[in-house]
Task: inverse folding
């Protein structure tokens, strides 16, 4: 049986274990964060939760660990090919670069300005005035909606930037950029999944009625939204596939915002959460398993 190292222990791992085992792949959790990792010695890395590691104990890795520094060490110790490697994760995590690359390739993206801190007040005012407020302000490399804010006026926008200045003033903070984007009210939010260039399913992320009534607007599942399996139009499926092909990422979550007038690729995720199998196409895990076997 092929042995697969999986760095993420959250929902994705729990959901994939049984379907992959049915297809001859043993998924094993390899904790890569919030622990001590011995880098030297005769037995440098006890890689699994239950001590099943051996120096040649894994055939492949699922996706490169989310923390790049720990991931570099784990990658060296495991010495396996990854379905999504370091470059894929870094490509997708840089939201601004993704928007720029997709836009240059002719794919629809939201109007966006990247700000590199510290920026002059005049530049900030100019960035805000490019849009009809409100605007969305988001860290360039955060996930799960962390730090994303909506600013309805210039003073509020500059106040958000003040907080970002405080964070970015810490010298160890490597990424000192953030994005300013147009706000698309009442857009439908889809997460489409692509494996090796083929659309394999999608969910619609929506907020419950009470959350909407309370003024919430972020559609991240980790912020209280629910995800329901949906069938996408052929046009949206092709857009998701073109996005993955443009970025060169084998396993990609593509976030689409759809309004009555337009559709944009809002973000991508090379470490996407896998939802319940019933929300994807019947061959979802067949395609995942094939992609993993192709690594070895």
Result:
């Amino acid at each position: 049986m092929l042995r697969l190292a999986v760095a993420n222990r959250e929902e994705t791992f729990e959901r994939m274990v049984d379907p992959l085992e049915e297809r001859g792949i043993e998924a094993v959790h390899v904790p890569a964060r919030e622990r001590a990792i011995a880098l030297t010695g005769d037995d440098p890395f006890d890689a699994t939760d239950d001590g099943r590691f051996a120096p040649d104990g894994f055939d492949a890795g699922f996706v490169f660990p989310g923390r790049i520094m720990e991931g570099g060490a784990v990658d060296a110790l495991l010495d396996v090919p990854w379905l999504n490697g370091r470059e894929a994760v870094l490509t997708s995590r840089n939201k601004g670069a993704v928007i720029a690359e997709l836009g240059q390739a002719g794919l629809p993206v939201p109007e966006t300005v990247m700000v590199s801190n510290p920026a002059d007040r005049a530049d900030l005012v100019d960035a805000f005035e490019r849009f009809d407020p409100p605007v969305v302000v988001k860290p360039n490399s955060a996930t799960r909606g962390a730090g994303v804010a909506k600013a309805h006026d210039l003073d509020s926008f500059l106040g958000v930037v003040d907080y970002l200045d405080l964070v970015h003033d810490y010298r160890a903070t490597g990424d000192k950029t953030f994005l300013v984007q147009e706000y698309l009210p009442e857009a439908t939010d889809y997460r489409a999944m692509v494996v090796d260039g083929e659309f394999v399913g999608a969910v619609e992320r929506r907020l419950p009625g009470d959350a909407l009534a309370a003024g919430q607007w972020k559609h991240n599942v980790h912020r209280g939204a629910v995800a329901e399996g949906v069938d996408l139009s052929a046009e949206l499926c092709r857009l998701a596939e073109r996005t993955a092909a443009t970025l060169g990422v084998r396993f990609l979550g593509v976030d689409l915002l759809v309004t009555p007038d337009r559709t944009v690729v809002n973000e991508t995720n090379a470490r996407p959460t896998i939802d319940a199998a019933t929300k994807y196409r019947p061959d979802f895990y067949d395609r995942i398993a094939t992609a993993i076997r192709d690594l070895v």
Q: What stands out?
A: The radius of gyration is 20 Å. The first strand starts at residue 2 and ends at 6. Confidence is low (pLDDT under 50) at residues 51-55.
